Amino acid sequence: MESDPLHLVGTTIADKYAVDSVVGEGGFAVVYRATHSVWKRPVALKVFKALGDVSHERRQQLLDDFVREGALLAELSERSAAIVQARDIGTVVLPQGDEVPFMVLEWLDGETLEDVLARESRAGVTPRGIEQTIELLGPVAEALALAHQKGIAHRDVKPGNVFVVGDVDGEHKVKLLDFGIAKVVQEAQKEGFRKTSGGHTSFTPLYGAPEQFDRNLGATGPWTDVFAFALVMVEVMLGREALVGDNLAQLAFSALDEKRRPTPGSYGILVSDQIEAAFRIALAVRPDDRYQNVGELWVALRAALSMGPPSGFTLASAQLRRVAPVSSIRGMPPPSGLKVTPPPASATAQSPGLGPVSVVGPAPQLGAAATIVDSAVDVNARTARAESGSRAKLFVAAGVVALLAVVGAGVGLKLRGSSGAAGGATTTVTSASAVTITSASAAPSAALAPACPKGMLEVAAGDYFMGSDDPKTNKDERPAHPVKLGRYCLDEFEVTAREYKACSDGGHCKRLVATNEWEGITARQRKLYDPICTGNDYAAFADHPINCVDFEAAETFCREVRGGRLPTEAEWEYAARGSDGRVYPWGDAPPAPGLLNACGSECVAWGRKNPDPDGPLAAMYKSDDGFAHTSPAGSFPRGQTSHGMKDMVGNVWEWVSDYYGPYSAGTKVSDPKGPEKGDERVIRGGAWNGGDPAWLRPSFRFSAPPSMKSHGIGFRCAKSG
C-alpha cells in the first residue's frame, strides 16, 4: 500500500516506534507496520485521525476516554489470548499540526476471516459444518463472553474483525480485532458531523442487528454481538453472507423480517433441531427474546452437540434464557408513603410511594408488555462484497425522517470504497465512486457549540409538544402544547450517593440526614424505608442514585458541583421522549424487565417481608429485574432515551425546577419555566417501587412539597447551552 495519508512513514513515534509502512486505512484510523527500536520487533501502530475539528476541552476528554478504553482493552487481552493485545498508547502530533491518539498492538501475520472466506469461495471450497465452525470460532466466542461478563459490547463483530494466524485448517490462532477502542474517536467524528447534519449513526449493515436498523427496538449491547456473531457463524457454514440485500433498505428488511430469520435451516443447512432452535433465539428480532450474551449462545450450542460447557463457563454462569416475548401487566396499588389528592370517581390512578402528591384524571388502561428495548449506538458500516472479495463501506448519517419506510431513523447515506483498518498485516483497500442520498431534514451548517461538561449529554435545540391529548392520561398532562427549547446539557445518569458525599465532604453541600420525611409518615414507615436511603451506607450504595434528598439539597448540588441547575419540567420531558412523541423513553413498547428498575417479583417479595399497610407493593411485571430497591446508575442501558440518558424512568423519581401548575393551550412558548410561585414542586419519572406503567410516561406528573424527602426521589442536573 503506497498512500500515507498521515505522512508518518519514515518517522519515529514516542522515540521508539519506527514507522515502516502503511498496511491499511479505514474510516477512523490508519494502520502502520512499525519496529520497536529497542526490541527490534514488529508492532501494529494504529493512528486515529478524527480529532481535528473538536474543541480543546472536548479533545482532552476524548483523550482521557481513549486512555481508559486502552486500559480496558489491555485488561481484556491479558485475560484472553483471542483478543488482540494492546501494548502501548499515546498521542502524536501529525505534520499538519493535529494531535491525535495512537495505539500499539501486537503484530499479527495472517489474514482476516473475511479474506479467508472470500479466498475459499473463489476456490470452490466446501463450507464448514457446525462442528468445524464451533472449533474455528471458539476462541472468539469465549473472548466475547468474557467481555460480556463485564457488561462490555464489541458492537462490530464481523469476519473482517476476526484475524486468523496460521493455517486455518491446521494449527491456528483466532484473534478478535477492534474491541471497542474506536468508539472514542467515533464520538469525535460524530461531533464534527453534527455541524452540518445534526446527527450521525454508522454500523455494519451486513452484520447489523435489528435494533441498529430501527432504534425503536432498543439499545445496542452484548445482545447485539450475539446477533452479529450468529450471522458470522451462518456465513462460515453457508459460504456467503447470511443477510440478503444489495443496499441498506434491503438489509434492514432482511434483519427485521419476523417471518424469515437467517438461521442455518432457512438456507437448507442440515443441523439438529436443538442447533436450529439456538440460532433462532440468537437471531430473534426483539433483543429481549435473544440470548443476552455470547456465553449463553455458546453453552447452548455446545450442549446441543454434547460437547460440554466451554472452558471458563458453566451452565449456571451462562444463565441460559428462554424468554417469553410477552408478559402481563395488572393494575396495582401504590407503593408506600405518598398521599394522593382524591381524584374523581372515574379515576383509580394511585400514588408512587414518595410523599404527598396531586393526581387528577382517569386511570390508565393497562395491557400486555412486549419485551422490547430502545436506543442506538454507532459502529462502522459496510455494503455487500464486490466480486474481487473486497467490500465497500457504508456510512449512515442519522436524520429524522424514515428511510424508505423501513428503517426507524431517517438517514443521509454515502457509499464509498474503503476497508476497515485491522490490527494485522493484510488489508485490502478498494476505491469506488460515491453515491450520495441526502436526508431532506439535514440541518444547515452551524458552528459547533461548546461541549457539555463531563458526565452530561447534549440535548440539541428543538420543538416538541409537551404533555398529551390522550383522554386516557391524567388531566394535568393535558393539553399537549407546543414548546421550543434551546440547547442544553443534562446529566447522563442520576446523581449518585458517591457524588453527593463528595460535595458534602467538600463543604459545598449540606451533610445529608438520610431519613424519609413527608406529611403523615408513620414510625413503621420510617423503620421500613430509612435503611434504604442510600446516604445511610455510602460504601454499599456509592453508585446508586442519592435519594432521601429534598428540593433544596438537589438544587444546591447542581449549582455547586455542575455549575448548573435542576432541569425545567419541559427540559426533562423533552430529554425523556424526544420530538417524536414516543410513549416511553425507549419507544412505544410497554415497560418490561431489562428496560428499567421498577417493581418486579423481587420488589414484591421484599414488600411481603416488610409490609407497609399504607402502601403495599405490587409488580409492574412478573419477572425479577435484579434489584429489590435502587440499582446502580445506568444498570439498564437498553431503556435509555433517544438522547442517551439512562434511568429517566424507574430507579428514583427526579426533582425538576418548576412549581406545579396546570397547563394551558396557546401559541408556542420558548423555554418555559412553569408558574412563578406555588406550594409544590414537580417530580418526574417513576421509581424502583413503581407498579403502574402510567407513571413511566414522560408526560406523567406528580407534585410534592419541596421539603419532602423519600427513598424514591433523587435528581439529575441540567446546564444551559
Describe it for me?
This protein is of the alpha+beta class and 721 residues long. The chain folds into 3 domains: 12-106, Phosphorylase Kinase, domain 1 (2-Layer Sandwich), CATH 3.30.200; 111-324 and 375-437, Transferase(Phosphotransferase) domain 1 (Transferase(Phosphotransferase), domain 1); 456-720, paralog of FGE (formylglycine-generating enzyme) (Alpha-Beta Complex), CATH 3.90.1580. Helix content is 24%, strand content 16%. The chain has helices spanning 56-79, 113-123, 130-149, 183-197, 210-213, 222-238, 248-256, 273-282, 294-304, 315-318, 497-505, 523-529, 551-562, 569-577, 601-609; strands at 12-13, 17-25, 29-36, 42-48, 86-93, 99-106, 111-112, 162-166, 172-176, 326-327, 369-370, 392-398, 411-417, 435-437, 456-459, 462-466, 481-485, 488-491, 653-659, 669-670, 681-684, 702-704, 713-714, 718-720. The strands form 7 sheets. The protein has a 6-stranded antiparallel beta sheet with strand order 1-2-3-4-6-5, covered by helices on one side. The chain has a 4-stranded mixed beta sheet with strand order 22-21-19-23. Strands 7-8-9 form a 3-stranded antiparallel beta sheet. Strand 3 and strand 4 form a beta hairpin. Helix 1 runs antiparallel to helix 4 (183-197), helix 3 runs antiparallel to helix 6 (222-238) and helix 8 (273-282) packs antiparallel against helix 9 (294-304). The radius of gyration is 26 Å and the shape is globular. The two termini are 45 Å apart.
